[in-house]
Design goal:
Radius of gyration: 15 Å
Helix content: 25-40%
Strand content: 5-15%
Number of strands: 5
Structural class: alpha+beta
Largest sheet: 3 strands, antiparallel
Number of helices: 2
Strand order of the largest sheet: 1-4-5
Length: 116
């Protein structure tokens, strides 16, 4: 989850794998790039207010985020190309389910710079 777009004002969506799952929040960063590719981040303490809502009947495979201007998906795996595959597969599913794009149209969106 170490991604700079998870910032104040971002709506984060997480998959829930088991009934009664718990939520943990930690590992605050004063500055963050697009992941911790070389395992670095500027760690800090923080105060945060958040609300948890369960979207029953909605299934997602990987975390998603929404800001005022963007939507994004996140993958987490080694090697890095597998993480990218997780994120793009999730974005294709999201563009189809919530935005009505067929797989070809969603692929064109990603192929034209959507996976930045």
């Amino acid at each position: 989850m170490d991604y700079r777009r998870f910032a104040p004002g971002t709506a984060a969506h997480f998959p829930v794998a088991v009934p009664g799952a718990l939520f943990y929040l930690g590992d605050g960063h004063a500055c963050q790039g697009d992941g911790e590719i070389v395992a670095t981040g500027i760690e800090t303490s923080f105060e945060i207010e958040f609300t948890v809502r369960l979207a029953k009947g909605k299934t997602i495979g990987w975390p998603r985020g929404e800001t005022a201007d963007d939507i994004f998906t996140v993958g987490n795996a080694r090697p890095l190309d597998q993480a990218l595959q997780h994120a793009t597969t999730e974005m294709l599913a999201w563009l189809g389910s919530d935005y009505g794009l067929d797989p070809l149209a969603a692929s064109h969106v990603l192929g034209s710079g959507g996976a930045l």
